[in-house]
Q: What sequence folds into this?
């Protein structure tokens, strides 16, 4: 065979050797990540990794390449050992019987049991500092603490009180509205309306100043909205034109809807 015919084969072999070295180095790095607990042992397919190493084994001719192959196989063996340890641990979790656990606890040292107890203990109470007085308080707490069944027992439910309506006088008497504030002004205006009787709306809110008219209109809207008076539209006695008439109520009546009366003021 001529030299020209051998050249392509040699070049192809070099490429395969370089590729095989890269693959084995990647395999060793992955195995190291498993050993350092940075990767789950079962995330690595050992069978596939062995097939990969076997695929390039016939290409190794130098001692460093053979050492690299042995190093990769050694790393895979450690991964298999870690997988076995993980399987044994998981099997113990699912099949640990009480007697085996009791025997295992007996084999632990006192310090080990104490540290495990502190890690899993979640007390109901917490003390910032352990002192004789604090321990006495803790003991007294536990002695007076009701059993869990008693604390979780559903308590009898009492009926809610019947609904009642509050009048303006009730609100003033209970201190909800101040007598010398807006509530007092509403009470005074309501007394005035009851004294005057049915009256033209515009005549009722009339005042010497525009600011006072706005204030009376604002308070009147509260009287109408909350049932202390009602506003109706009637025909005038002389010209028949429509006019707004304000009618006082002797006692508050609950409003039939939640619509508030708008404030009407003409300058």
A:
């Amino acid at each position: 065979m001529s030299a020209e015919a051998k050249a392509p084969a040699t070049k192809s072999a070099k490429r395969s050797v370089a590729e095989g070295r890269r693959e084995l180095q990647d395999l060793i790095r992955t195995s190291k990540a498993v050993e350092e607990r940075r990767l789950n042992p079962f995330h690595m397919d050992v069978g596939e990794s062995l097939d990969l190493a076997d695929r390039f084994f016939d290409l190794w001719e130098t001692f460093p390449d053979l050492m690299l192959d042995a190093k990769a196989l050694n790393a895979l063996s450690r991964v298999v050992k870690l997988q076995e340890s993980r399987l044994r641990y998981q099997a113990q979790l699912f099949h640990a019987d009480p007697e085996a656990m009791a025997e295992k606890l007996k084999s632990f040292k006192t310090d080990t049991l104490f540290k495990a107890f502190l890690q899993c203990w979640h007390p109901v109470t917490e003390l910032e500092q352990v002192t004789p007085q604090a321990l006495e308080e803790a003991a007294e707490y536990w002695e007076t603490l009701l059993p869990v069944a008693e604390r979780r027992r559903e308590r009898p439910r009492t009926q809610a009180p019947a609904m009642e309506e509050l009048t303006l006088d009730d609100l003033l008497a209970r201190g909800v509205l101040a007598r010398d504030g807006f509530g007092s002004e509403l009470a005074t205006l309501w007394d005035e309306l009851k004294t005057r009787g049915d009256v033209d709306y515009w005549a009722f809110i009339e005042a010497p100043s525009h600011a006072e008219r706005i204030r009376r209109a604002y308070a009147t809207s509260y009287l109408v909205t909350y049932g202390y008076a009602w506003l109706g539209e009637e025909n005038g006695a002389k010209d028949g034109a429509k006019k707004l008439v304000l009618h006082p109520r002797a006692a508050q009546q609950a409003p039939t809807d939640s619509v508030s009366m708008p404030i009407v003021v003409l300058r």
User: Anything to note?
Assistant: The chain is about 60% helix and 5% strand.
